[in-house]
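in:
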């Protein structure tokens, strides 16, 4: 269906798009958990509710991370309004470039981080760039290649990266 290094996305929302604002239980506000919004652009019925919900969560002491996923409509609506209210923004390089219009990934992360969150841009086998305020950290993919395995296909790697990154840092953002 695809060629090597092709980033084609075949999306079928299925039950993801079935969730509505009234389905979100208010008891989550007392949980003091970390909330991760994955696939903002697949959550069409929740997308306009997210700013209100994130605001309630933040008031309740919940830390929030966001991975937008690719916007199939290529409009990127609502992200900039949500970014100041979150702790971590996790994107891949194509999402960061599309969202900001900046072809340089390191530069693309900066205006997003300037709005407040730790902004992390996954660059596939090339590594990762993180920006918070005026600080930038970069790990080259070659620095992570201390195992005999080689990268063949990074499909699903972003979600796995997000899970590990959030697990390691969520406690630091807890209020």
């Amino acid at each position: 269906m695809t060629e090597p290094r092709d980033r084609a996305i075949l999306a079928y929302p299925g039950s993801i798009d079935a969730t509505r604002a009234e389905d979100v239980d208010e008891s989550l506000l007392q949980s003091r958990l970390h909330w991760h919004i994955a696939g903002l652009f697949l959550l069409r019925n929740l997308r306009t509710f997210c700013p209100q919900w994130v605001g309630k969560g933040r008031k309740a002491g919940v830390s929030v991370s966001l991975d937008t996923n690719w916007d199939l409509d290529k409009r990127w609506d609502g992200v900039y309004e949500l970014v100041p209210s979150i702790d971590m923004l996790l994107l891949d390089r194509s999402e960061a470039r599309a969202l900001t219009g900046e072809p340089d990934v390191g530069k693309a992360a900066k205006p997003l981080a300037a709005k407040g969150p730790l902004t992390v841009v996954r660059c596939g086998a090339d590594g990762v760039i993180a920006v918070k305020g005026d600080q930038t950290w970069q790990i080259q993919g070659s620095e992570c290649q201390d195992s005999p395995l080689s990268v063949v296909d990074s499909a699903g790697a972003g979600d796995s990266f997000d899970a590990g990154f959030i697990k390691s840092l969520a406690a630091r953002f807890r209020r």
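note: The CA atoms of residues 101 and 110 lie 12 Å apart.
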